[in-house]
Write a structure and sequence with these properties.
Layout: E1 8-12, H1 19-29, E2 34-35, E3 38-40, E4 54-56, H2 59-67, E5 71-77, E6 80-85, H3 86-94, E7 99-101, H4 105-114, E8 119-125, H5 129-138, H6 143-156, E9 165-169, H7 174-188, H8 197-204
Parallel strand pairs: 1-7, 1-8, 2-7, 3-4, 8-9
Antiparallel strand pairs: 3-6, 5-6
The chain binds guanosine-5'-monophosphate.
Length: 206
């Protein structure tokens, strides 16, 4: 007994917190979970594929999407633009599929403004210094980019209290964070306000 509409899960937090790995793990666990692929003007990294990791677009194409209202939210991050395609997310939710996305923190807050029903999850490492180690280990950014990402991360941490949930991704124990995310995804479906009123009335009068 549910509303039939999908739920929108927004997994955010600073770069290097482990969003990619944990969202990937959630997708493996929940076959019906739909992942919103973002558009970005950032050049593709060697292991990234078009339409799977991102839709890689030029600045003018991004502007066209933005000006045409095709992005649910968008932000500039470290000199590049990132945005969430609106049609895909709204289409999935209307069909009853849960959707997960992983924008940076300001984008997550913008999603909450547009969709107050969205579930905002802030993912952090157990120690801030782990962010640097993880960013260094993945070898996808230059040293200057890592410095900049850590500066942005400091700022992003100030917004934790605006989120619905906080999940700590402990170093070396990502499976615990997956269990925690799983608990949130499962519990959200049972919140009273997600049930249609007539089904609550039926329970009341049964
Ligand atoms: P990266 O360059 O590491 O792939 O992403 C940089 C930051 O942009 C990450 O924090 C990532 O979560 C965020 N990001 C990815 N897609 C989107 C999006 O569609 N909107 C927003 N606001 N941020 C995004």
């Amino acid at each position: 007994m549910t509303s039939g509409l999908g739920l929108l899960f927004v997994v955010s937090g600073p770069s290097g917190a482990g969003k990619d790995t944990l969202v990937e793990a959630m997708r493996e666990r929940r076959a019906s979970l739909r992942y919103s692929v973002s558009a970005t003007t950032r050049p593709a990294r060697a292991d990234e594929r078009e339409g799977e990791h991102y839709f890689f677009v030029g600045r003018s194409e991004f502007d066209r999407l933005r000006e045409g209202g095709r992005l649910l939210e968008w932000r500039e991050y470290n000199g590049n633009l990132y945005g969430t395609p609106r049609d895909y997310v709204e289409g999935c939710l209307a069909q009853g599929y849960d959707v997960v996305m992983k924008p940076e923190v300001n984008g997550a807050l913008a999603v909450k403004t547009a969709y107050p029903d969205a579930v905002l999850i802030f993912l952090v490492p157990d120690r801030f210094s782990n962010l640097r180690e993880r960013l260094l280990a993945r070898r996808t950014e230059t040293n200057e980019e890592i410095v900049r990402r850590l500066e942005i991360a400091q700022d992003e941490m100030k917004f934790i209290r605006r989120f619905d949930y906080l999940v700590v991704n402990e170093q070396g124990r990502p499976e615990q964070a997956v269990v925690d995310l799983e608990a949130i995804f499962a519990a959200e479906r049972f919140r009273i306000h997600r049930y249609p009123d007539d089904s609550i009335q039926r329970v009341e009068s049964s």
